[in-house]
Amino acid sequence: MSAAAALPGWRQWLFAAKICGAALLALWIALWIDLPRPYWAMATVYITTQALAGATRSKAAYRVGGTLIGVAVAVVLVPNLVNAPELLTLALGLWTAACLYLSLLDRTPRSYLFMLAGYTAALIGFPAVTDPAAIFDTAVARAEEITLGILCAALVSGLVLPEPVGPVVAARIQAWLEEAGRWTADVLSGAGEEPAVRARRLRLAAEAAEIDVLATHLSYDTSAQARAAPWVRLLRGRMLILLPVLSSLADRIGALRGLSALPADLRDLLGDVAAWSGAGARPEEGRALLARIDAADASLPAEAGWAAIVRASLIERLRELVEVVRDCRVLEEHVARGGGRLRQELAFASEFGARAPRHRDHGMALRSALGVLVSVTVCVAVWVATAWPDGATAAMMGAVLCCLFAGLDDPVPPILSFATWSVVGSLAVGVLLFGILPLVHDFVTLALVLAPPLLLCGLLMTIPRTMPVGLALGVNGNALLAIQDRYTSEFSGFVNSSLALVGGIWIAALVTRLIRSVGAEQGAWRLLRASRASLARAARRRGRGDRVAFASLMLDRLGLLVPRLAAAGPDSPLRRIDTLAALRVGMNLVSLRRARHGLPRDQVAAVDAALDAVAAHYSGAAGTPAEALLARIDAAMRRVGSATGPQGRRDALLGLAGLRRALFPAAPPYRPGPAGATRLTEAA
C-alpha cells in the first residue's frame, strides 16, 4: 500500500473535525453556564458520536434516557445506604450487573439505554460516597453535563455535512443483492458447493446482519429512506430466507446430477432463471418464469421414486427462489423511493409478518453480569483497605470497562489495550496540563491548544483497528485533563487520578479473565449448541410454526458465527461444518410441522416418529446421525408416499426428502415400497 493510500480521506477528516468541534462547543457552553465539571461533556461527545447522523441520534436518545434512569437510581441509593458501605457497594454493583444483563440480551440500539442506566449510577454514586449530602446537586450536574455533550454531538452531526443512514443502507442492500445474484448463478450452474462459493455465502450471512444493525438506526434519520424502515424489515426477511433456499437448490441440483436425472428442459429453465437474476430480476419477467416453473411441475404419483421427489423439491425451491428474488427487487426499489404505498403485490406477504427473533445467550450474559459485580466489589475493597483518595475512580472504571466490552468473546485484550493507551494518554495529558495550559488565559487559545489532540482522537476513531485507541484517548484524556473555569491542577492529584483510572481498568481485566473470557472457538461452539437445541425444540413441537421467524433466529446465529469461524485455526473442526445444512434441517422441520395437520392419522404417526428421532439426534452430542434416524425418515416417506392425497402429502414428502438430504447427503437413494416394508429399531 502506498503512503498516499494510507492517509485519511476527506470523510475521516470531516468526522474528526466534527467530533472536535462538538467537544469544543460542549466545553464552551459548559464553561459559560458554569457547570462544575465541563470535561464530562467533552468526554460524552466522544462516547456518543458516530459516523452516520441517524446512528448518532439513535445513540443520543438512548444515552439521555439511560443517563436519567441512572441518575435517579444513584439519588435513591446513596443517601439511604451511605452508612452501610457494604450494602451500597452491593446495591450499585447489582444494579449495574442487572442492567448489563438486560443490555446483552436486547442486542438492538435500545441495549445502550440499559447499559447507560447501569454504569451511570456507578459513575455518580461512588464519587458521592464522600459527600452524600450533595448527591442531588451532583447528580443534577452530571446529568446536565452528559446531556449537554449528547446534544452537542447530535447537533453537530446533524447540521454539519451530515452523512445519513438511508443512502448507506440502500447501497448495502444493492451490493448484497448483487452478490446474492452471483451466488444464484453459481448455484444454478452447478457450482454452488465449491469452497469459494461456500465462503461467499457465509459472508452474505454476516453482511445481512450488518445491514440489520444499520437499519435499526433508520427511523432516526432525516434521509428520504427514513420512512421506509418497516419495508427494510420486510426486505430483511426475504434476504434471510434466500440463503437457505439457495443452499437447498445447490443440494438438489447436485443430487439430480448424481442420479443422471437432470433433463435438458430443466437445465434450460435453471439457466433462464440464472440469467434473469443476473440481469436485475425484473418483476414482470419473474411472473413469466413462475408460469414456466408451474408448467414444469408435476404431481407426485403413489410410491414416487427418489428422482421424482428430488425433482419436485427442486421445482418447489426454484419457485421460492424466483418469488423471493422478485420480492427483494420490488422492496429494494420501494426502499430507495422512501417507502409509501407499495406498487406491486408481494409473493410472500403471508409469511413475512412475524417478528424477527434474535439469539440470546443467557449464560454469557450472566457471566458478564457477575464479572461487573465482582470488579466493582474488588475495586471498592481496595479503596476501603488503602483509604485511597481516588478509589472511587477505580470503582467507576471497573464498572464502565466491564460493560463496554461485554459483548466480546474475550474482552481482556481490548480492556488491556484500553489501559495501555490510557497510560499513554495520561503522559500526554500531563505534558499538556502542566507544561502548556498554565500559559492559556482565554477560550480561543484553549481551543487552539486542544484542537490537535482532539482531532487526532477523532481520526483514530475512524479506523476500525485504532478505534479503541481513539476512544480511550478521547474519553480518558478529557477526563484526566479535567478542564474547569480556572486552572486548579495539582500534580499529586493528577497522578493519583491516573493511577486510579488505570488500576480500575486492570482490575476489570483481571476479573474478566477469571470469570468471563472465552475464546472465539468456544463462542462458536456455544452458538452451534444453541442451534442444535433450537432444532430439537422445533422437531418436538407439533404446531404449524413460522419459517421466517425460525430462519431469522438461525441466520442471526450464523451472522454471529461467521467472524468466529474466520478466527478458528485451519485445522479446527469448525471449518468442516456446513453451517447452512442445519438451517435447511430447521426449515424442513417447520414445513413438516405444518404439513402434518392435513394428513391422515397413520401418516401423522409416521411423521411424528421421524420428528422424534430428529429431536433425539439434536438433543444429544454433536456427531454423525444414526442409521436408525435414516430408517425413520424412509419409513415416514413410504407411509406418506404410499397413496395420492391432499397438498399436505406433497409438502410432507418434500420436507422429509429435505431432511434426508441435509442429514444424510451421502446415503443411497430412497427406495419406495410398501408402508411397512422397513423394520425400525428402537435405538432412535
From TrEMBL:
Keyword Membrane set for record: yes
Annotated localization: Cell membrane
Residue ranges crossing the lipid bilayer per the database entry: 12-33, 62-81, 87-105, 365-385, 415-437, 443-463
Superkingdom, taxonomy of origin: Bacteria
Keywords: Cell membrane, Membrane, Transmembrane, Transmembrane helix, Transport
Membrane topology: Multi-pass membrane protein
Official protein name in the record: p-hydroxybenzoic acid efflux pump subunit AaeB
Organism: Methylobacterium crusticola
